[in-house]
Design a protein that fits this description.
Layout (H helix, E strand, L loop, with lengths): L15 H7 L5 E12 L3 E5 L7 E4 L7 H6 L5 E10 L7 E12 L15 H5 L9 H23 L3 E2 L5 E2 L11 E2 L26 E3 L4 H11 L1 E9 L12 E10 L3 H22 L1 H15 L12 H10 L3 E4 H9 L2 H4 L15 H12 L3 E7 L15 E9 L3 E8 L4 H10 L8 H8 L5 E7 H9 L20
Parallel strand pairs: 3-5, 6-10, 12-13
Antiparallel strand pairs: 1-2, 1-4, 2-3, 4-5, 7-9, 8-9, 10-11, 11-16, 13-14, 14-15, 15-16
Helix pairs in contact: 4-6, 4-7, 4-14, 6-8
This protein binds one RNA strand through α3, β11, β15, β16 and α14.
Amino acid sequence: MDIHNIDVKEMKRTEVNQVLQEGKVGSEILVKGWVKAFRANRFISLNDGSGFNNLQVVVDFENYPEELIKRISFHSCISVKGELVESQGAGQKFELVAKEIEILGDSNAGDYVLQPKKMTPEYLREKAHFRMRTNTFSAVFRIRHAVAFAIHKYYNDNGYYYMHTPIITGSDAEGAGEMFRVSALDPDNAPKGEDGKVDYKQDFFGKATNLTVSGQLQAEIGALALGKVYTFGPTFRAENSNTSRHLAEFWMIEPEVAFCDIHGDMDLAEDFSKYLIKYVLDNYPDDLKFLENRILDMEKQMPKEQRRPMPLIETLNFVIENDFERITYTEAVNILRSSKPYKKGRFEFDVEWGKDLQAEHERWLVEKKFKKPVIVVDYPKDIKSFYMRLNDDEKTVAAMDVLFPGIGEVIGGSQREERLEFLQKRMAEMDIPEHELWWYLELRKFGGCPHAGFGMGFERMVQFITGMSNIRDVIPFPRVPGSAEF
RNA sequence: GCCUCUUUAGCUCAGCUGGUUAGAGCGCCGGACUGUUAAUCCGUAGGUCCAAGGUUCGAGUCCUUGAAGGGGCGCCA
């Protein structure tokens, strides 16, 4: 705790969370934080970010100069020394009777862009430098941290190695979407080759390079040496995606496991997902409760059919207590084709074997048919990536998607094609030159083995756990087409 | 990339088939009150109606173009 205290000469600062959990009545303490509310000139709700709950500071305003009292305003930063007593009010156990108050940072309410009232997420998105001070966003970002921590804990406790795959990649065959070019050349004066195109041989790396779209191919290198590895890092897609579920810069978790088939992969995906949810349920109940109430409050003004079927915490508990539904792509197609909305022509897109399932189909399966997370496995090979293992029917590959209610695809994974000749055939069919991935092919020539893995969209998981409807509200500084402020 | 909606006070919004001085709630500010929990009560101030053109005697309201934001779809995690 000392490490947080810059004022060692006076008194150790106690964090609000610690006061609320283990405060001793009668003790003299020093707290610092931001004013969330100042009621009746007497009651300050103080929060220092250490937890969701505030400490009530009682100010006998009669004993303080009016000038000081006026400076205690919304989100001003103060330091308070006082005595902890049992609260006379009903809303809290303890309260701090102030003996000394110091203003650390003023916040003139008339000029401040935040107000002590409900503000829309869209408005707050434009004030990203302040939005973490609100109840909603501080809860979201505490939970974001919790999920990140739980990821490392899960894999460490299960014998995985955290592997750092490159952010800048020299391979443009990862096959996961449009990439951001990385170049040190002067764009206005780039050297040109004989063909008139930019000559990247003269660029920093001696070749064209991009920001990674996935660490999977490199993670396979790790898995075929260390057995079980995972990556957790930023990933970039230059797709012009304008939705509430896409970011141009997002974080992805990619475990890769040797001696694992598609069934083991699905087991891992389910167990891992449940672990993350349970970790937040166990450790951040106050933040979750607040987010749940926030949603219930918003839904009061919505028609019934647009409301969530269950409140947030109940949804999370339901997910960890029940098995995910597992169906093959072929079964999914059959179920969809015999469904009511299909027969009544309610779907915008047709369902036909060989075509990818559309969002509306996935949503129906998850939210209407099974009412829980669904894992769809064994997709037609022609709609999936080159590295996915061909099944014995030679029509499908051992690929799976985990679909969550309200979000859709949170995880996409597969058993990898470990058989060299099958992989080469697939790459040829998809026009991927072997020299681009020579090292990837060599993994199949020397000591290859069956292995599998998946990618989980970190922000999508945080979205599911927090119930936030827009992915831009679960990452501190969202990067989306046309927007890179902050 | 496509479709759609929105843009009026600091914030969230209302403003009828075009018609004088532009409305509310909350917030801010001022006052009252003081054991509050989104405190309460009273009052004041605050607006180039997103921008540029156009139609009209007259435009917040209608038309065109543009900008910003939301929602949906596609692509995916």
